[in-house]
Amino acid sequence: MLLEREAELAQVAEALRAAAAGDSSLVLLTGPLGTGRTALLHQLPMLAEGEKIRVLRANAAPMEQDFDLGVVRQLFDSLLTGVPEDLRGQRIEAGVDLCRTVFSDDAPPLDENGAVTIPEEALYGLRSVLATAGAERPLLILVDDLQWVDTPSLRWLAFLVKRLHGLRAVLVCSLRDGYRRPGDPLLGEIVEAARRVLRPAPLSLGATKEVILEQFGVPGDEEFARACHESSAGNPLFLKSVLADLAMRGHRPTAEHAETARSLRPAQLRERLASSLRAQPRPPRDLAAAIAVLGDQAEPDLLGRLAGLDPIGFLAALRDLHQLGLVAAEQEPRFLHRVVQDAVESSMTVAERERLHDAAAALMYHNGRPAELVAAQLLAVTSSDHPWAVEVLRAAADTALRRGAPRTAARYLRRALLDGSLTGEGRARLLIDLATAERGFDPAACERHISQAIPLLTTARLRAAAALRISPTIVGLGPPSVIDLLHQVAEDLGPAASLEGTARDVALRLEARLRHAGHEDPAELAAAVERLSVLGAEPPLLTSAERELTAVLLNAAVLTARWPAAEVSRLANRILEREPATSDQVHTPLPLVVIGLVAADSVRGISSWLAMEQQTRRQGGTVVDALVNVQQAMVLSARGRVAQAREYAERAVRLAEVHWQEAGIVSTLALTRVALDLQDSALIERILDGPGRRRSSSLALTAALQFVKAAQDAEQGRWSSALETLLACGRQLEASGWRNPVLFSWRPWAADLHRRVGDPHAAGALAEEELLRATEWGAPVALGRALRVKARLIDGDQGMRLLRESVDVLRASANELELARTLLLLGKRLRPGCGEAAAVLREAAALASACGVPRLVERIRAADGSGAAAAPPEATLTRTERTVTSLVGRGLTNQEVAAELGVSSRAIEKHLTSSYRKLGVSGRRELIELLPRMHS
Question: What Gene3D superfamilies does its record include (predicted)?
Answer without folding.
Answer: P-loop containing nucleotide triphosphate hydrolases, Winged helix-like DNA-binding domain superfamily/Winged helix DNA-binding domain
